[in-house]
Specification:
9 strands; binds phosphoric acid mono(formamide)ester; 2 domains; 12 helices; globular; Rossmann fold; four-stranded parallel beta sheet
């Protein structure tokens, strides 16, 4: 990377708009911030005096808390708004809500929304930087960045790795960001899932579509299971979750097709026994809680890069 490299993004809307050098720079920044969370006093003054608003209009456990922990560890002031407790419940539009929040002069608004493209819309209407914390079926950039960081930590590299992503590819913003991110960093991505949950044009996104989970997992260094996103499916797209578990669940038998040192990932929340066998979720190859740990470091890096600081 050139010594003059300057992070060029004002907003974090998706990995589609990021070059490999941008992703690498975020990961290196996150790697340098990780040790702050291992100190006995887990706080640095880097973002002292900055204001971060978490506008989460869809449920979240990991992402919302992780952004809040990240901001607080850098001494920013954080404020949380959810859909149920806000005037969105009275019919206020998202842009009106955000304009009112922007009038309080925050330094960053982090948004999760069920509608794809909402963070981009917001970024066009408010002066503050916007971070996409997951929008509909579009992208979940901070999740993919923490996944890339976790794989690089465990495998020492990203280029040349074989990554299998299994499940509801159509409705998974995690899958979309990860396909872009892993491909951009030189990994080979294979996907498998029910035909009803496989979007058209998957090859154009950079992934190879396999006809079975065994084929996708064959020789893989990384196996990522996805939750079936029932909340985004209007019509029934699966006969039953039991059938899904039989044909697409990641089990020890499926993992026998992967490399012996393959790691198992899941963005959470897990439906144990559906997309992932509980013994694997809690087993020695699982890096699922490392993903959560790295999420704080990645979000510290994102906040730092778009808000600056001391
Ligand atoms: N991975 C993820 O986005 O989890 P949450 O929905 O709990 O934020």
């Amino acid at each position: 990377m050139s010594a003059e490299y300057i992070f060029p993004h004002r907003h974090i809307l998706g990995l589609a708009e990021m070059a490999d050098v941008d992703i690498d720079f975020i990961l290196k920044t996150a790697e340098s911030f990780k040790e702050i969370s291992q100190r006995s006093i887990k706080k640095v003054p880097t973002l002292r005096g900055k204001t971060v608003i978490n506008l989460f209009l869809e449920p979240s456990t990991r992402t919302r808390l992780s952004f809040e922990v990240a901001a607080k560890r850098m001494s920013a002031d954080t404020f949380n708004i959810s859909g149920a407790g806000s005037s969105a419940a009275k019919g206020e539009t998202m842009v009106d809500t955000a304009r009112n929040l922007a009038a309080m002069n925050p330094d960053c608004i982090i948004i999760r929304h069920s509608c794809s493209g909402s963070p981009g819309l917001l970024a066009r209407h408010i002066p503050a930087p916007v971070i996409n914390a997951g929008d509909g079926t579009h992208e979940h950039p901070s999740q993919a960045l923490l996944d890339l960081m976790t794989v690089r930590e465990h495998k020492g590299r990203l280029a040349g790795l074989k990554v299998a992503i299994i499940g509801d590819i159509t409705h998974s913003r995690v899958a979309h960001s990860n396909i872009i991110g892993f491909s951009r960093m030189g990994a080979r991505v294979r996907v498998a899932g029910p035909a009803t949950l496989m979007p058209p044009g998957i090859a154009a996104m950079g992934a190879e579509c396999c006809s079975s989970v065994q084929e996708a997992v064959s020789g893989a260094d990384v196996v990522m299971a996805l939750r079936v996103q029932k909340e985004r499916q209007r019509d029934p797209l699966l006969p039953s979750l039991r059938e899904y578990a039989i044909f697409y669940g990641i089990t020890p038998e499926v993992m026998a097709h992967a490399r012996p040192d393959a790691i198992i990932m899941h963005p959470g929340p897990i439906n144990r026994g559906v997309e992932l066998d509980p013994a694997l979720a809690d087993g020695p190859h699982s890096v699922i809680l490392d993903q959560v740990t790295n999420g704080v470091a990645v979000r510290m890096a994102l906040l730092y890069l778009i808000m600056g600081g001391e």
